[in-house]
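Researcher: Let's do a round of design. I'm pasting the structure tokens now; please hold your answer until I've finished.
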């Protein structure tokens, strides 16, 4: 009897675990939209579309993608390009009218249906449209460094001009105080053109270089920018034009700093 009783308890435990796992998984849902959707004009009459699978497939494998397009110059609405690509990550749209701009939207598909929202991309075919070249990006421009607190410097720049190479995917940032530059950020991993460098030493001068990154490599550097956080450095203050300019004095408290603005107010 003891052996039978023990076996029965074990069976109940296993059944409970299996039931719990199945309940936790939940029913499948529609997937998220595809990631990194791109449209590249690779000839005067052809656009190459590419994308990555969605981060969340809704609990059911992706079986294909639906693509629609809209010709800006013709007006109207989106038209169907392909109802189901199958499980691929590229599609070529051919026979296009040179000079037209094409906007695309793509939906992920699983057994539950289409993603609720599409990813979008745009390209214009021109007489000079050609496949991307295997070249690194152009250099960034207008690099600046601004001390915005006693321990923080804001580094900013403008994105590089297009050169028919692969798209810029991030930026490398180098920094030095003395001697040679060292890597501060190997790859920002996004298209943002600002970086906040915190935890700095008050009174020390920091110098920066920034390089653009694409799938081929790094751009050249176009110069340096420096800033020195000091004990008198205060974050930039933005005062609303709606403030009444009739009081005899005013104190504004922003992020822990107190400024007396009475000299700027009408008496």
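Researcher: That's everything. Go ahead.
Model: Designed sequence:
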């Amino acid at each position: 009897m003891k052996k039978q009783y023990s076996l029965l308890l074990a069976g109940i435990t296993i059944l409970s675990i299996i039931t719990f796992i199945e309940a936790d998984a939940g029913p499948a849902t529609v997937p998220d939209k595809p990631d990194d959707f791109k449209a590249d004009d690779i000839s005067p009459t052809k656009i190459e579309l590419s994308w990555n699978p969605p981060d969340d497939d809704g609990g059911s494998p992706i079986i294909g993608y639906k693509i629609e397009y809209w010709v800006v110059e013709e007006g109207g609405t989106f038209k169907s390009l392909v109802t189901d690509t199958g499980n691929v990550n590229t599609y070529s749209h051919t026979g296009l009218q040179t000079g037209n701009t094409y906007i695309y939207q793509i939906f992920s598909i699983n057994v539950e249906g289409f993603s609720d929202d599409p990813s979008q991309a745009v390209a214009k075919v021109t007489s000079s449209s050609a496949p991307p070249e295997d070249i690194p990006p152009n250099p960034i421009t207008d690099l600046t460094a601004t001390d915005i607190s006693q321990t923080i410097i804001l580094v900013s720049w403008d994105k590089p001009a297009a050169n028919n190479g692969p798209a810029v995917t991030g930026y490398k940032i180098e920094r030095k105080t003395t001697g040679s530059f060292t890597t501060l950020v190997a790859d920002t991993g996004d298209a943002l053109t600002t970086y906040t460098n915190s935890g700095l030493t008050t009174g020390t001068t920091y110098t920066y270089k920034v390089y653009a990154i694409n799938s081929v490599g790094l751009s050249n550097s176009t110069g340096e920018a420096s800033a020195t956080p000091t004990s008198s450095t205060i974050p930039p203050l933005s005062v609303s034009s709606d403030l009444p300019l009739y009081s005899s004095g005013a104190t504004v408290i922003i992020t822990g700093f107190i400024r007396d603005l009475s000299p700027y107010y009408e008496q």
